[in-house]
Amino acid sequence: MNISDSVLIIDDEVQIRRLLEITLSSNDFNTYFAADGKQGLIAAATHNPSLIILDLGLPDIDGQELLLKLREWFTKPVIVLSVRNSEEEIIKALDNGANDYLTKPFRSGELIARIRAAIRLSRESGDKPVIESGSLNIDMINHVVRKNGEILKLTSTEFTLLTLLAKNQGCVLTHQHILREIWGYGYLEQTQYLRVFIAQLRKKIEDNPSNPTLLITESGIGYRFGN
What we know:
The protein is α/β, with parallel strands linked by helices. It folds into two domains: 6-126, Rossmann fold (3-Layer(aba) Sandwich), CATH 3.40.50; 128-225, Winged helix-like DNA-binding domain superfamily/Winged helix DNA-binding domain (Arc Repressor Mutant, subunit A), CATH 1.10.10.10. The protein is built from eight helices and twelve strands. It has helices at residues 14-25, 37-47, 63-70, 87-95, 108-127, 156-167, 175-183, 191-205, and strands at residues 6-10, 30-34, 51-54, 78-82, 100-103, 130-133, 136-139, 144-147, 150-151, 172-174, 215-218, 222-225. The strands form three sheets. Strands 2-1-3-4-5 form a five-stranded parallel sheet, sandwiched between helices. Helix 6 (156-167) packs across helix 8 (191-205). The mean pLDDT is 89.
């Protein structure tokens, strides 16, 4: 984390704002605040924070709607922090562009860890617009994947799955982590669903799909992008 990293908190509860200010300041984050959606949009445009913490129960506009408005132009991470804990609400927020979702009451240490991870991943993806591994070239900006110089025809889901693994090259991502990031919380048990997409992707990017060197299976755990 850089000392210049800043967090905008959009929440109408004074006590939550105060708690977050203490927690974030003690971890060297600069903080900005907004008590409603309108103020939040203005603050996001004015301060261009490294990350936004967004409550869904705002007095003037529902947080889900505000999230959609933010995602029309704000490309940095957004973490939803809300008392709403239904699966439907969580999936909707992630589909609307949230990077992560925590429910209140929350653990300060966990929140700080997720903030740092979201900012780090955002910065790393920004620093590496192109990922290369052997003959494979993944252009993050233009959403183009090439193998041996030829453009591969990938679906939107296949591209998202590939880039998630590639951006975490060398790290094992669990089935649940991948399913949550790509499809949402409602698919956490659908490991067979994930296997189908991995198999499809291997046919397109691997030299030998039956002996993969790029999308490597970690038995019983998940997958790793190798090479």
